[in-house]
Amino acid sequence: MRWENYTSLPETFRNQRVFDGCGISGLINIDGTRISGDTVIDMLCILKERENGLGAGYAAYGIYPEYKDYFAFHFLFDNETAKSKVLEYLENFGSVIQSEPIPTSLSHEIDNPPITWRVFFNPISERNQDEAEKIVQIVMEINENIDNAYVMSSGKNMGVFKGNGWSHEIADFYKIREYKAYMWLAHSRFPTNTPGWWGGAHPFNLLNCSVIHNGEITSYGTNRRYLESFGYKCTLFTDTEVIAYLIDLLCRRHKFPISIATIALAPPLFDEIEKLDRKSQIIIKNIRATYRSAMLNGPFSIVVGNSDPIPTMMGLSDRKKLRPLVVGISEDENTIYMSSEEASFNRLMLINNRLDLKEVWHPKSGTAVIAKLGKGLIKNGIENPLKKRTIALLEVA
Amino acid sequence: MAIAHEIISHYKVNIDREDCQKCKRCLTNCSFGVFSFNGERIIAQSNKCVACQRCVVMCPAKAIHISQSESFLPPHGNYTRKIRNIIWAQSGNGGVLLSATGNDRPIRSIFDDLLLDACQVTNPSIDPLRETIETKIFFGRKPKKLEFIVESDDFTDVSLKTQIFPNFEIDMPIMVGHMSLGSISYNACQAIYRAARELNIIAGSGEGGLHPDFYEFAPNIITEIASGRFGVDINYLNNAAGLEIKIGQGAKPGHGGHLPGEKVNSLIAQTRMIPEGSDALSPYPHHDIYSIEDLAQLIAALKEATRYKVPVGVKIAAVHNSAPIAVGIVRGGADFLTLDGFRGGTGAAPRIIRDHAGIPIELAIAAVDERLRQENLREEVTLIAGGSIRYSADLVKAIALGADVAMCSLPVLIAMGCRVCQQCFRGLCSWGIATQQEYLVKRLDIDIAKKRIINLFHSWNEELKEVLGAMGIDSVESLRSNRDRLRYIGPNPRIADILGVKHAGE
Amino acid sequence: MIINEVKEKIYEIGFDDIIEIDAAPNGEPIDYRDLNAMIHARTLKNCKKIVLYNICGQRFIGAALQGDFEIIINGVPGNDLGIFMDGPKITVYGNCEDQVGNTMNQGSMIINGNGGDVIGLSARGGTIYIKGDVGYRVGIHMKEYKNKFPIIIIGGTAKDFLGEYMAGGIIVVLGLKFLPDGSIIDIDQSICGNELGTGIHRGSIYLRTDEKLEDKLGVGAKIVEFDGKGKEEIGPFLYEYCETFNIPFDLVINKQFQVIKPISKRPYGGTYCNKMI
């Protein structure tokens, strides 16, 4: 069996929109307990009807505590030349603290596997440019201009592992069960049109923010052209890329709290806005007006993991609820689970009674569920925007 | 001599002698003096006929019909009948040829060469009849970004830190173009403003001032400040949802205006604040704007004068360098920018300019939207595009190319009864639309005209929703600049490049 | 519905009959927005007189202000002084920039100095008295309406395109020169530039000169005799002007005036062809 298409799509498929359907799963431990990848693998792999073996991936937060102050680059290379080119390139912008292969487990039938590599990196900060901005520039440069190289992730104390295959294959290949993380995101893919390629699998990451996504946004052109005016280059032609950049723009560059960012991405309907108090109306209308091009339209459900400034997991579905998203909270309220289907939770219950759920619910369409490390469930996705939660879920100290 | 050079009639007025009751209603209805009665029968002078259809409609016996003149000129593929007519007219009168409405040359419409996308399988279309699809938009300047003061961890106490600019909401991305009282009648204005108010859209005042009777429609009117400054005083500035500095008009870029004195009756005089019978000349440029920084000055002056309470914008004709000009205008402080394409209409403009100056609005939208994006200014400004938005398909495509609002005028006039005879500059409109003669104006029933405009735009908006629904979009914001949802099918792929649209099949 | 409530800056200034504002506290000129907001706040409180010091190019002073009060400006105000103004009186001790009295509706301006270009653009009423010289296109497209008409009186000289497109009102140019010793003499150069009154179709221009003006006339303008009617028309304003700037009235009227009037109310009547093509 020959694997291929690691760092780019085959020539004939380039510069075309890429569509897919998907399964998504994620979890976060509020107290920061790091757990093995087993759980999220089980949650994802049970959704096998949602994938067709053309892409899967995992994002894990808290996996590199010994290197937590450095940016962790996860790379895919087609060959050694690309690897040395990238490593050489990195030297120009900072110091490489550690450079090593990402451990993989390869069955002997696989021919020509990709080079999976990770680098812990400390950028030299230049005047007037913060570290994060520098890293973004490096990522964009490598993905766009260095052939046969692809950056899977670039955050601190986190990493993305993804590839073209079934969710269980990718999990085995990257030995996902051996990592311990306080937040996990997982994704399996059902591409509509392309044969799939490794870099194009989810999660899509930039800095500390990773996105998994199900659906096809109909506002792609509007969103992409909006991002381009802020200097983003949307070279992958995927919805997920656009969503990740929008979140980067809103949360990192415009410093939006995540809950306000979700109002920009999926604002309430005008009819709903009119029912709010005047102050909320003015705020939400201004968000709609100012960020009208950041609004995501069409069917989507997304789960976003972001560790900056406070590790947060956010789940959001479109305003018309055209893609599924279900949320569960553990009996001890320490773990928040999100998934495309409730089957993910049931699966965990079946395995050694590993899960005791206090509550399972379907958040309101276009309304974000937000869970924060150390803080608990900030938004349960049922309340009005800018309003206090309406169902009784305990605050976690 | 005069007879030897007379232009051959365009139309032939046919009267069915058997049906004609000789009631002479055609005599009173024709404002162009076609009909007379010789004691025995109705006589029609076909060479005066403009095919406005008034007589046809009003004849109780339905005895009149207008056909194309059968007079046959020796054919010539290059010296067309129109070109020969132009030469005959100019060699007879020796003046600049006037024209009305928009460019009538058979130039291919780019809108017609664009095809819309629709959902199949990978995402669902939306049923606009049963699920919400939003067409409301905010009109005015937006900040580049918003900043908030967040008081509590769960974001229940949030307030805005960013200084925000005046904006107002309209329920459809539609604006009725600027037609002054003068170019059209009091009744036509009244019908348009009433319809705009009822639909909660906006209408332009044109550059001829605003009659005090219309102050009540101020929340739905954008008043225009043109080079002539007609009717511009504090009341005018304060009775508007927005102010627009008119630099140019699609039908006559680089040209001024000229309302002949005979049209300046007491009503027009009062509105324009000039003496009755006085020519109303709009200078070619604004004489306080000779440069881009002067435009910024007038924008600032208008904001000062209205104490920063309403958006102030600028209208330009779509010309070759619209894109960099637009950037300068937005940098100069304009809150909205109106682009008027080369097919845009007019009550009176030199034919040479109407038919030959400017560029198509489709290309102008694409170029301006793209350039504003390159300079990261696009989101701040509201972009209005007009210049032959004929029906809802054009509106949809204009928005997908990058406009916030589509502006149109002639469809409104047609809705009220205009037959597009293109003789507006003569002030004889038999339908009471483009005239100031009282006996003609009162032919236009304000309530019926208003209702017809409302019906028209209501159906446009429904069709917009149909398209959005088919595209799987539930809010018009997500159509704006969404050129991915357009494909080009015309003969010139270079146009597709400029539009940033792929060819059909790609 | 306007979604944003725009808050205007309200400046609290102690109430006095005369408000004095230093427009350059500590030598730093304040922004025109702030200055005008202060003036605006005062006029809302029925202040009758505002004195501005150290004005340095701030634009739009007096913009769209209505009512019966006076603004005294010490320094050089910026462009568009009194734009859209409707009533107040502005006195400037210093020169002015361009577009003084742009689209003015009512009120008066007294400029103790020179003026720039395009003064009185599209004005519909009010008086603009300038002691010194002015630039190009002064009085362009001035109009008149009902009993309102604008008057511009210029003590010195004007340049080209004086009264272009003029559609009403009166322009008077006196051709005086004010010597440093306080004496007043007639200028020894031409009183106006070329293209005089080009496109004029209403109103009149009075020039206090005996020079030959025929070659300078613009399209549609003609010279007529200064008769009793003319004297009646400008007399009271001229008298007021002389009072204002302390100029002997006799000195001004001791010389011949020439009057520029439109040839026709329809200078461009024959330009266009209405034929159906």
Protein traits:
heterotrimer; A: 397 residues; alpha+beta; Glutamine Phosphoribosylpyrophosphate, subunit 1, domain 1; 7-stranded antiparallel β-sheet; 10 helices; 25% helix; globular; disordered C terminus; B: 506 residues; alpha/beta; Alpha-Beta Plaits; 2 domains; 3-stranded mixed β-sheet
Outline the biggest β-sheet of chain C.
Answer: 11 strands, mixed
Q: Using the 3D structure, state the CATH architecture of the domain at 18-208 and 302-380 in chain A.
A: 4-Layer Sandwich
Number of DSSP strands of chain C?
14
What percentage of the residues of chain A does DSSP assign to strands (E)?
Answer: 25-35%
Helix- and strand-based class of chain A? alpha+beta
Concise overview:
The complex is a heterotrimer of chains A (397), B (506) and C (277). By secondary structure, chain A is an alpha+beta fold.
Describe how the helices and strands are arranged.
The complex is a heterotrimer of chains A (397), B (506) and C (277).
Chain A: E1 20-29, E2 35-36, H1 38-45, E3 56-61, E4 71-77, H2 80-91, E5 94-101, E6 115-123, H3 131-145, E7 149-153, E8 158-163, H4 167-173, E9 180-181, E10 183-191, E11 204-206, E12 209-215, H5 220-228, H6 239-253, H7 258-265, H8 270-274, H9 278-290, E13 300-306, E14 312-317, E15 326-330, E16 335-339, H10 343-350, E17 357-361, E18 369-372, E19 376-380
Antiparallel strand pairs in A: 1-10, 1-16, 2-9, 3-8, 3-10, 4-6, 4-7, 5-6, 11-12, 12-13, 13-14, 14-18, 15-16, 15-17, 18-19
Chain B: E1 11-15, H1 25-29, E2 35-37, E3 42-44, H2 54-58, E4 64-68, H3 81-93, E5 96-99, E6 114-116, E7 137-140, E8 148-150, E9 158-160, E10 167-170, E11 174-176, H4 186-199, E12 202-204, E13 221-225, H5 234-238, E14 242-246, E15 257-259, H6 266-272, E16 280-282, H7 292-305, E17 312-317, H8 322-331, E18 336-340, E19 349-350, H9 351-356, H10 361-374, E20 382-386, H11 392-401, E21 405-408, H12 410-416, H13 438-441, H14 446-471, E22 486-488, H15 493-499, E23 502-503
Helix pairs in contact in B: 4-14, 8-10, 11-14, 12-14
Chain C: E1 18-22, H1 32-44, E2 49-56, E3 70-76, E4 86-93, E5 106-111, E6 127-130, E7 151-154, E8 167-173, E9 176-178, E10 184-186, E11 202-207, E12 221-224, H2 228-245, H3 249-253, E13 258-262, E14 272-273
Parallel strand pairs in C: 1-2, 2-3, 3-4, 4-5, 5-6, 6-7, 7-8, 8-11
Antiparallel strand pairs in C: 9-10, 11-13, 12-13
